[in-house]
Amino acid sequence: MPVPRTRVLRALSAGALTVALASGATAATAAAGFTAPASDVPALSTPHLAAAPAAAKKVVTKVTTTANLNLRAGSSTKHKVIRTIPKGKTVNVSATASNGWYKVSYAGKTGWISNKYTKVAASTAPKQPAPKGTSTVKLWVTASANVNIRKGSSTGHASVGTLPKNSVAKATERAANGWYKISYKNKTGWVSNKYVKTCSKGCQVDTGDYTTNRAGLSDRYFTKANGTDLYAAVGGTRRVGDIPKNSIVYRDLKWEKEGGQVAGWYFVRTQGLNGWMKASDLKRNSNAGTTNSKGYTRAQVLRQSNGKVSSSMLAAVPWDKEKTLIAAPAVKDLTRLNTAFKKQFGKNLDIDLAYRTLDTQKYLYAELGSYIAAKPGTSNHGWGLAIDVRETYDYSFRGKYYKWLKANSHKYNWTHRKNLEEYRSDGSKNPYAEAWHFEYTRK
């Protein structure tokens, strides 16, 4: 805790003696050379010194002392002195009394100082009361520009975050001035209605962080034809337009209701994404083959355009309830790997994702960036020659499943690449680390 500096009086002018008396010292003690206590007026200075006034209609938040000042228990000289704040110290102001004194904290003590011997160091616009009259709503808002999320429903309130352009958030209240109360990434506050678009049915929604493609769902469908579309919102932007037939799709009724149900449309999870699909594009069962019946080789698959592999070269993983599609040449060795895994752990491998279309890769790359998603046209998922297992602890770098797969997958022509490991050779953290990604390597 800083030691307050005081001035030793060697000689007192008439003005200085007046200061000393005003601070509670007697003429005798001052003349005898005792230290004059700091006060609500400055030592060895004219008592008529005044600080620059705060800007009109501003709330003072910080002040700097222009003299050694007493910190008092109340907002006048009648209250006892708690301690001294030296000249030149800047302190935070938590309140202002009607007589202008400031409530401040210094060196672990809170009290009041006179405003006459301070200068304003910082101030803010006064908070404006929220307009009266709010109503409950059930809407989704999409930002048309980066918009501040504020503590209250006007620009007079502090910002607690930002709703980025094109991002969505759930709105629960509407103020009389049109502002919406939203929640976004653990932040709750108000956004201006001038910078958002609203939706009540078939809306784009924010389901939170990705867990798995299945996301704990059981209402399973498959796509009827190649080129099935996935939309951000009903009648809105198409996210993906090349989903192959027999692709696994899970209907998510909870988020369908949250987004506002629309007849003939389902809110679904597929391809590691979510969005809306036409119910007429879906069927209950897959008729995809589960073997490499035409004898395709890995080399033949690699000659296909990445993300546009012919559906005839894809096969469903036979022991997987989701019938996940991968390149047909990889099915046999993946099944061998699963047999060994099941012998070790008594369960099948949890395949989350495998073949990925070009549109899907483009979307993921734009959303996640290069640390997580490969550049479109380069991913082994685009040839169906890679799998992602679930992102759970047992499949993490410290999990028992990952450790076994890392040590044994190569025996079955699958591998976890070294450049995906948690740490680099120099011991630094690898920003491209992926414990869940394995690739097929048979020539």
Contiguous uncertain segments of 5+ residues: 1-56
User: What is the number of E strands?
Assistant: 27
CATH architecture of the largest domain: 2-Layer Sandwich
Which oligomeric state applies? single chain
Rounded to the nearest angstrom, the distance between the terminal CA atoms is 72 Å
Can you count the helices?
7
Strand order of the largest sheet: 6-5-4-1-7
Main sheet overview: 5 strands, antiparallel
Could you give the topology of this structure?
Blueprint: H1 14-22, H2 27-31, E1 59-65, E2 69-72, E3 81-85, E4 90-96, E5 102-106, E6 109-113, E7 118-124, E8 134-143, E9 147-150, E10 159-163, E11 168-175, E12 180-184, E13 187-191, E14 196-199, E15 220-223, E16 228-231, E17 238-243, E18 248-251, H3 253-259, E19 265-270, E20 273-278, E21 282-283, H4 298-302, E22 314-316, E23 325-327, H5 331-345, E24 351-353, H6 358-368, E25 386-389, H7 400-408, E26 414-415, E27 437-440
Antiparallel strand pairs: 1-4, 1-7, 2-3, 4-5, 5-6, 8-11, 8-14, 9-10, 11-12, 12-13, 15-18, 15-21, 16-17, 18-19, 19-20, 22-23, 24-25, 25-27, 26-27
